[in-house]
Amino acid sequence: MFKKPTHYLLLLALAGTVACSSNSTEESSDSVDSVQIVKPVFVTDPVIHDTDDPAIWINPANPAKSLIIGTDKDSLGALYVYDLKGKVIDSLVRKDIQRPNNVDINYGLSLGNDTVDFAVTGERLTSKLRFFSLPDMKEINAGGIEIYQGESGPDFRDLMGVATYKSPKSGKMYVIAGRKNGPTDGTYLWQYEVIGENGQIRLELIRKFGQYSGQKEIEAIAVDAELGYIYYSDEGVGVRKYHAEPEMGNEELALFATEGFTDDHEGISIYKLDGTTGYILVSDQQAALFHVFPREGSEGNPHQHTLITKIPVSTVESDGSEVTSTSLGPDFPKGLFVAMSDDKTFQIYRWEDLAGDILKSKGN
Length: 364
Fold this sequence. Notes:
- With about 375 residues, the protein is mostly beta strands.
- The protein is about 5% helix and about 45% strand.
- It contains two helices and 26 strands.
């Protein structure tokens, strides 16, 4: 299914199954041979404190004018907004957010008299979700909405991971939240319905689900809306998979990516070739690698996600990432991948540079 370059066996011996690109690469100084590291085409302006997680808002009128939203994780934190060349748009930056960890985006939320796209981030120090309309970044509920109410202990309310899901079946909008610590009885993640009324948002707790090993934490969460799955990183253990539709039940469908990681499993992003196929990218944080798995699973088993390749990148300690297969203008004809780097920036890549000779691109 996947074409291997002629130097595939060399790469396998040097660094596991590693993707190489002929563009935007540099040679690793750690190897005598040329294991190539994929380089970004742009690097964003730095934040003040600590980057953590990005999201991509696709402009329906002009995709080349789409936006990247990224968190600055600090008690005096912020959401930064960039153009696709990584230049900060100062008028859209929103500060005074108390340690925002993750951010996610969704489209077409009805607020009663209006319909908006929005970004949501978790305010870790207050256990609140903060919602902002897009592209104007106006806050929808001033000060945010508290979640994890009734949980005992500060760690169980220490909000970290955030992802959104718009059901293709019902049209309902949801947000899924993870935290620094929580129970190991299958109720680690909480899923809320996002309900718009009179220009504001209210949240209704729908279910608690999700196994947790108890080893580290759960931060990275990603949703495949078309296929109806939620993925999350149980750091140091693997990636867990569940149904996104609450009525489909809370059974764990898969635990994969359990081997070959240096330490932490982190950011998860999904590149969609079409409605059912593509790739799941998972950050191997300490190794500057992204492990790639088939979105559709294996033939006959949609929940068997076997490693395809590992992509070496120039990010440092990458925590969060996002990818789209939508063409975003001449700089990103096959899509864009953006990943946090521990130097207070986000690195922006062309998908085809990541894909190299091993992975496919949308439309090919």
